Amino acid sequence: MRICVCTIVHHPEDARILHRQILALLEAGHEVTYIAPFRARNVTPWRDVTPVDVPRASGRRRIGALRAARREMAKHAAKADLLLIHDPELLLALPRRRPPTVWDVHEDTAAALGTKSWLPRPLRSVLRPAVHAAEWWAQRRVRLLLAEHGYVDRFSGDHPVVPNTTYVPETPGRPPEDDRVVYLGQLSLARGAAELVELGRRLCPYGISVELIGAADADTRPLLRDAQREGAVRWYGFVPNDRALRMLEGATAGLSLLHDVPNYRHSLPTKVIEYMARGVPVITTPNPQAARIVGGAGVVVPYEDGAAAAEAVLRLRDDQPLRSRMATVGHAVARRDFHWPEQASHFVKYLEDWADAPAPSATLP
Question: Across the chain, what does the average pLDDT equal?
Answer without folding.
Answer: 90
